[in-house]
Amino acid sequence: MLNLFKPKALDRAQKRFWDDNGYLILPGFFDAETVAAVNAEVANVVTDRTAYPKVTADIIAGDLAGRRMKIADVPDRAFSGPIKINDLFMDSEVVTACTLSDRITRVLKELLDGDPLICNSLNFIYGSGQPAHYDSWFMPPIAKDRMAVVSICLDQYTDENGPLFVYPGSHKIAPYVFPHGGIAALGSDLGPANAYVADTTREIEPVYFYGRPGDVLIWHSQLLHGGAAIKDPTRTRRSLVTHYWRARDVPQDQRVKMTAGGYILKRDHHV
Ligand SMILES: O=C(O)CCC(=O)C(=O)O
């Protein structure tokens, strides 16, 4: 007889951990071949960047810090420091295959209570060095709390290369409300929001994630997190960070179904 029963992607303890802490670590989730394929793809994008005319990059450090540029225009020197390559899920089958693999899709479906949809992806070559923040400040979910973010380790994370850190349970803190009345910053001054963060999280010890290649850390849209300072600037910390909304929260004409349960947002590259 055909067995149509599909086991749950997450067990009860994992679901409970997610609910309590707002994040989940899945060790060894992707195999070495997948990690090597993504790393090779990103290396190729960097080498052959004129072949990706729409792809943009945000430069995080150095003389071009704060600039968003077409990757084709980014000078070589900017790739030897923190940089964020935006939205390769739109241009790379390797990235899409990994970020909408059947296994990760099933995990996200359970966390989001519905099929996941990629709204953005970021490839880091070095640590981000980003101070603690809530992603909802910059990319709020359409439906409250229905966004999850997956960081795939593509290098060993250590104290030297500025590991990812999270504040367990911070997703339960009432979000900061900006003067316009919403939880997205929309260009508002972040000063008061950061003061609110300092005030509301002083009791929480951050957890540093020393992931290995292939490990995954998933965080809730409302979880405080960031990238620690980089002690050794020569050490890469490659990662693929993907933000997922819930597909059914997005109008049908703005989403594309890519796999049995995985979608991408129909949109243009950032400019
Ligand atoms: O991996 C990191 O350093 C953090 C990345 C991050 O904070 C983000 O993409 O929102």
Low-pLDDT runs of 5+ residues are: none
| Shape, principal axes of CA atoms | globular
Element-by-element helix/strand order: HEHEEEHHEEEHEEEEEE
Overall pLDDT score: 96
Radius of gyration: 18 Å
Distance N to C terminus = 54 Å
Distinct small molecules: 2-oxoglutaric acid
CATH H-level homologous superfamily name: q2cbj1_9rhob like domain
Number of domains: 1
Tell me about this structure.
Helix content is 20%, strand content 22%. With 271 residues, it is an alpha+beta fold. It has one domain (12-265): q2cbj1_9rhob like domain (Jelly Rolls), CATH 2.60.120. The longest helix has 16 residues, at 32-47. Bound molecules: 2-oxoglutaric acid. 2-oxoglutaric acid is lined by residues 122, 127-128, 130, 135, 151, 164, 225-227, 239, 241. It comes from Methylobacterium trifolii. Its cofactor is Fe(2+). InterPro entries: Phytyl_CoA_dOase-like (IPR008775).
Topology summary:
Layout (H helix, E strand, L loop, with lengths): L11 H10 L1 E4 L5 H16 L8 E4 L8 E3 L12 E4 L6 H7 L2 H11 L3 E9 L22 E7 L10 E3 L24 H10 L6 E3 L6 E5 L4 E3 L11 E8 L8 E3 L5 E3 L6
Parallel strand pairs: 5-13
Antiparallel strand pairs: 1-9, 2-3, 2-4, 4-5, 5-11, 6-9, 6-11, 7-8, 7-10, 12-13
The structure holds 2-oxoglutaric acid.
2-oxoglutaric acid binds next to strand 10 and strand 11.
Features:
binds 2-oxoglutaric acid; 13 strands; single chain; alpha+beta; 20% helix; 271 residues; ten-stranded mixed sheet; Jelly Rolls; globular
What would you say about this model in short?
With 271 residues, the protein is an alpha+beta fold. It has helices spanning 12-21, 32-47, 93-99, 102-112, 191-200; strands at 23-26, 56-59, 68-70, 83-86, 116-124, 147-153, 164-166, 207-209, 216-220, 225-227, 239-246, 255-257, 263-265.
